[in-house]
């Protein structure tokens, strides 16, 4: 069976706003990826782009992608989903044996969006839920409260997660929102929707990243050990939604991480649009031996803990780049593996801020 390797990664740092067009942002990330992989444009066989027309304000978003990333007149396709799902599509293309080098691209130009909350209303049922004009913070707060109630948690647990990620981001030159904060500072902040406080919510950012997957191990930076994707409960109709629980995680993990691979996971990267998102994903992953909330309070998920979670700073520390969040996590995971401190990791990404669906990828050092 064909092995799949991460041959190179490229990104531009997260910022609240870039003056450049998204095409220029993507081109810079692509150049960085080419340099990292020591590859030529001519070696790229296909491009898998991640994009959502609602976020871009234009139709057929991926038609603007190939020229910037060496994909002109080559196979290219769009995954209208989180970019970790696009990563899995590229992985499967290589597994067919028809492609040797496949590029995965993702970007976010959040600073161009004036009505983000209104755009997210399209997540919901158009007849029953959307007319209520519910803000997504309220839905996320219901999820957070349901999780804390089910697991006997406290709102302070969310502040522990947020403080950890914001401080971790200080080590990451690509992060936009790293700061020397602490739990008490965050606990003194206002609620955006109880129990979520301001720092419990990942701030939007502009960002671009490119990852080159290959069947050739000559320049391998990491090995893709497994992938998984799943849907959970029906998300667009609140009457059928299971609050406080991600039903997608366990099916996705079972595909990506068979029991024999559990020992490979030495840290976890999660795209957490809210502090509660990180805890809800961790609670279902099954890679931590013990109660997740006790682990949070005991420091097991800190940078130097038993199982570091989001040592890169996560989306709360780096910035939340919309559908590019999954690929952002892959790039950070590969960079961390190359430090030599860890030899394997798990990357998990939710399909959206208030969606019960997502992807899981397991990586080991190349």
UniProtKB/TrEMBL annotation:
A Pfam family annotated for this UniProt entry:
Thiolase_C_1
SUPFAM superfamilies given for it? Answer: Thiolase-like (SSF53901)
Q: Which residues form a coiled coil?
A: none
Annotated GO molecular function terms are: acetyl-CoA C-acetyltransferase activity
| InterPro entries in alphabetical order | Thiolase-like, Thiolase_C_2
The organism's place on the tree of life at top rank: Archaea
**Thiolase C-terminal domain spans which residues?**
263-338
Q: What is this protein called?
A: Acetyl-CoA C-acetyltransferase
